[in-house]
RAS related
Amino acid sequence: SFGGGCNGTKSLLLTLSVSLPQSYFVSDYDPTIEDSYTKICTVDGKETRLDILDTAGQEEFGAMREQYMRSGEGFLLVFALNDLGSYHEVQKFHTQILRVKDRDDFPMVLVGNKADLEQQRVISREEAQAFTREHRIHYMEASAKNRYNVDESFFELVKIIRRFQEIESPPPQSHHSGKQKRGGCPCVLL
């Protein structure tokens, strides 16, 4: 689930790092300063280790949060669809991440949690989608209670991180001496 940060009415910032598989997944949650989890999953046929840091969006730990933002490879910005305050808080997280990363964009997914509470919704899908269109990030709705789109939001973030890393660090091109054939294949002259 998304942990205690969004089971109540608070916003939640999940910092994600993706690496080679190893370790285990811890599912218990104790909303203290932070909690970390490691989970092995397969995304698009590739086994991936997710290192998840749940900072629970607690304001009193803002300095520590900036450190997590510096090291994170992607972020789930989780807010409660029935809480306007948590929605505004994740918008601040978005701005803070871009400031800390010194970038105009970075891998993020905005997740509206508590989709099961449609009658209590105060943030419309259209409002959240307008924010994500403006800031070029992905939007999903989820329900931690019903396990709807919880795993999928992490998988979507992994895909976004991978695309971002491919653009930022394309695979090295082999540098051969010689000329290129018209077909684009390297031709080595000996």
The radius of gyration is 19 Å. Residues 16 and 52 are 5 Å apart (CA to CA). The beta strands are 12-19, 35-43, 46-54, 74-80, 108-113, 138-141. The chain has one domain: 12-168.
